[in-house]
User: Which sequence fits this backbone?
């Protein structure tokens, strides 16, 4: 059990160690889905759900099956199976209840299973030795941090559609990285949160 | 499936046309995360090459037996197996690099390059060429990591240190004051954004000349 | 030394945990797929897979999936997709058992001759780039408020890279890339761009509704609404309304009489 308050875990996940702009986890969707705010927010919602549920399930899997049987080396494989299954489940649910969102997310919904952010979150839970409450909080915090960064990026990209951009930069990946540069300078972990 | 392909051309394609960072634009997460120094970049690339070659081989061997509906989970499990091996080997034999890379070693599982090549190449080609393709793309990845790692380490710490040997040291040579930000996250975005802009500019120039 | 007795229990544990996990996950997914089943028409899926997938909206529907649904379930014509063109229409027709009819492609066409050469430029515009913005802020930076502003709103609207801004202030269409989706035509705030088939030979290259004197003050080749073309046309295809001549392409025989008589040289025979 790590010595960190819930507040510290939350701040850590959302701002100090923001998954997208500080830890570089989940960049493919960061530059891919942020062309407009609607798809960015849909993607973020799905990611928050998947990360939280994965943190939930993987905590039990790790603590009660892998650790007691001394099978820590199976962590990666077991976690990826769990995440792939949860993403498939989310895909079923979204397809049934929110078809327009399903269509607008397109290929990016099944791609959440290979999103570094989800696997990164559950692995970091194990590495930081968080207990149950901390694990789930960290999962939610990671998802929220992802959402914050995605929404900022999508808003900037949406509005900058009318601005002049040099041809070499274009309006795609390169442009997104220049915006991410400025965002990461504001998010970077230049300060610590004192545990309460 | 051209008949005019050979080992050399397939290998070079992984470095030039199918370059992971600028050609395929895949695997950006580890490219930015581990390039705080050239040494870390080489360590990560070595692990990724092993996983890439192994998964390409295994997926190519099994390509006719995998049912389409469970294709992705099976590829993920194959890749995860190789990654677990790399994880344990690095923890045992190169503890310094293992500690520096941290969570990014198991994250090779979800490195888009590995699953991307498995989907795009290993599923449709024979064992031998899948192996060559894995080596080619892996080498391209290695060169990219060394390039970006070199820039960030040089500008960020003023010198390049490889396996304990200080190769260059601008601080003492030129009195250079290192820009610490380059080894942190903003430096990564800056480096890759500028490099991509340069590559785009070259492409546009080439297209204009060709047109 | 690796002894079998040490390895066996570990092996059994590993295999049983992995197999157990896979079975549990598999069972959960099978149940979920039954519970959250969505009824889809396999025909709609097949047609959707034939469409290009660019989701450009050129068909008038909200993306390729909606277009496939409209074609199969709501009777939209099988050549609805301008991007896919005749080839895709043929494939869809094969799936649905319908004949595809080849139609002549239409490309964007600029109905203005002003540009940098013939039309006066009033302001040096620097700001948010776009014809729409320039129109809103200063009523177009050029002398004629109806003509092509030349700032590239249409160029940016094109998803396929078929438009570029030419040197003389007009957009240039690359027919190889143009898919006929119509985004540029919708984007142009002055309606200067329109679809034109190659078989439509005669066009009035002006959109200005200004009186003749005002047109001549800013543009050397704009339509002044003198009605000489209307009198000359044997087919009655060209009519002048509000100081602007417009051609009905259905009636036009491309005889070129209006082209010759126009004092402003505002009509073109391609």
Assistant:
């Amino acid at each position: 059990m790590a010595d960190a308050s819930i507040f510290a875990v939350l701040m850590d996940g959302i701002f100090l160690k923001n998954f997208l702009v500080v830890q570089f986890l989940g960049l493919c969707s960061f530059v891919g889905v942020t062309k407009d705010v609607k798809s960015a927010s849909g993607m973020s919602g799905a990611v928050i759900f998947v990360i939280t549920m994965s943190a939930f399930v993987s905590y039990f899997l790790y603590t009660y099956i892998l650790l007691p049987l001394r099978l820590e080396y199976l962590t990666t494989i077991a976690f990826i199976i769990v995440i792939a299954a949860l993403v498939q489940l989310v895909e079923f649910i979204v397809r049934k209840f929110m078809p327009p969102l399903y269509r607008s997310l397109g290929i990016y919904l099944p791609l959440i299973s290979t999103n570094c952010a989800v696997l990164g979150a559950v692995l970091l839970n194990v590495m930081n030795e968080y207990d149950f409450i901390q694990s789930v909080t960290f999962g939610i915090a990671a998802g929220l941090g992802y959402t914050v960064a995605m929404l900022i990026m999508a808003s900037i990209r949406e509005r900058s559609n009318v601005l002049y951009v040099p041809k070499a930069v274009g309006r795609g990946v390169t442009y997104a990285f220049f915006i991410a540069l400025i965002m990461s300078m504001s998010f970077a972990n230049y300060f610590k949160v004192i545990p309460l | 499936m051209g008949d005019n392909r050979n080992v050399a051309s397939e290998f070079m394609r992984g470095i030039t046309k199918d370059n992971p960072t600028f050609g395929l634009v895949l695997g950006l997460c580890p490219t930015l995360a581990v390039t705080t120094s050239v040494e870390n970049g080489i360590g990560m690339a070595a692990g990724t090459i092993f996983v890439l070659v192994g998964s390409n081989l295994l997926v190519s061997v099994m390509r006719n037996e995998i049912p389409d509906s469970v294709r992705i989970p099976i590829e993920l499990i194959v890749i995860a197996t190789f990654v677990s091996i790399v994880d344990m080997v690095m923890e045992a034999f190169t503890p310094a690099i293992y500690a520096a890379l941290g969570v990014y070693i198991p994250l090779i599982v979800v490195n888009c390059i590995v699953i991307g090549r498995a989907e795009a190449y290993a599923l449709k080609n024979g064992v031998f060429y899948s192996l060559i393709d894995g080596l080619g793309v892996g080498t391209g990845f290695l060169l990219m990591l060394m390039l970006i790692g070199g820039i960030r380490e040089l500008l960020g710490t003023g010198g390049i240190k490889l396996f304990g040997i200080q190769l260059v040291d601008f601080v003492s040579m030129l009195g250079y004051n290192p820009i610490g930000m380059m080894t942190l996250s903003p430096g990564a975005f800056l480096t890759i954004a500028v490099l991509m802009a340069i590559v785009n500019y070259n492409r546009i120039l080439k297209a204009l000349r060709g047109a | 030394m690796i002894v079998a007795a040490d390895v066996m229990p570990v092996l059994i544990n590993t295999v049983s945990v992995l197999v157990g996990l896979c079975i549990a996950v598999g069972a959960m997914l099978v149940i979920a797929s039954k519970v959250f089943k969505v009824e889809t028409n396999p025909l709609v899926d097949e047609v959707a897979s034939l469409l290009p997938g660019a989701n450009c909206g050129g068909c008038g529907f909200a993306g390729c999936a909606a277009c496939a649904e409209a074609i199969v379930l709501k009777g939209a014509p099988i050549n609805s997709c301008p991007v896919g063109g005749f080839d895709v229409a043929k494939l869809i027709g094969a799936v649905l058992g319908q004949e595809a009819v080849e139609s002549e492609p239409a490309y964007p066409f600029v109905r203005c001759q002003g540009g940098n050469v013939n039309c006066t430029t009033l302001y040096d515009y620097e700001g948010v780039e776009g014809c729409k913005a320039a129109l809103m802020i200063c009523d177009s930076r050029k002398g004629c408020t109806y003509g092509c502003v030349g700032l590239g709103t249409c160029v940016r609207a094109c998803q396929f890279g078929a438009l570029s801004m030419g040197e003389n202030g007009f957009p240039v269409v690359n027919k190889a890339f143009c898919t006929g989706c119509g985004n540029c035509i919708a984007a142009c705030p002055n309606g200067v761009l329109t679809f034109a088939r190659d078989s439509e030979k005669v066009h009035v290259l002006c959109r200005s509704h200004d009186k003749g004197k005002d047109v001549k003050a800013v543009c050397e080749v704009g339509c002044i609404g003198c009605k000489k073309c209307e009198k000359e046309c044997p087919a009655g295809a060209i009519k002048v309304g509000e100081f602007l001549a417009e051609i009905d392409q259905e009636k036009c025989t491309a005889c070129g009489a209006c082209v010759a008589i126009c004092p402003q040289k505002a009509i073109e025979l391609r």
About this structure: Chain B has one domain: 7-210.
